[in-house]
Amino acid sequence: MNYLAHSFLSFTDQQIVGQFLEDFIRNKDRYSFPKDIQDGITLHRAIDTFTDSHPAIHEAKKVFSPLVRLYAGAFVDVSMDYFLANDLTQHSLQEWKEHSSRVYRVLNENQKWLPENFKRMLVKMEADDWLYNYREDWGIKFSIQNVLNKAKYLDKDIPVFKAFLENKSILQNCYDHFFPDLLAHTKGINTVLQLEN
Fold this sequence. Notes:
The protein is mostly helical. 74% of the residues lie in helices and 0% in strands. The protein has eleven helices and no strands. Helix 2 crosses helix 3, helix 3 runs antiparallel to helix 11 and helix 4 crosses helix 5. The longest helix has 29 residues. The two termini are 29 Å apart.
């Protein structure tokens, strides 16, 4: 769900493709892709594993767990994209805009690797510029509703966005303690991947 973070924590164009593919492919299919795309899939999994075990993420889940229980992690992921998109220590607004454009370009140039359901989503993602607009409250509201709509066992009217707004300062603090650690961890994983090439 946290598409911005996964794209930002990619070190090559092909890794971007792999990072996006991870949620759309079966595990056994990962080896059918070129090595650089496989590296993106590996990075995606390393990011998810690190994120799930981080104390700040455990704290962030407490904001949503009373409302959505086991789905709290998905809403934390979406929230972290909001704070990343507003993190001007990582990129200026212009650089975030350029990053978003680059990701759409890379994904469109690599459509031969993308499953049909992802291609359909990409059209919507680019048209509404999801990646850049994660910085807006309405962009995150849209993403939160998207998660609710896809969740089989959640009511579509649960006030998750209200919880996000009411707990922004708590979630911001969690992001501030979490993201530098994630960035360092991902750089380390990428270094190992490059040594394997």
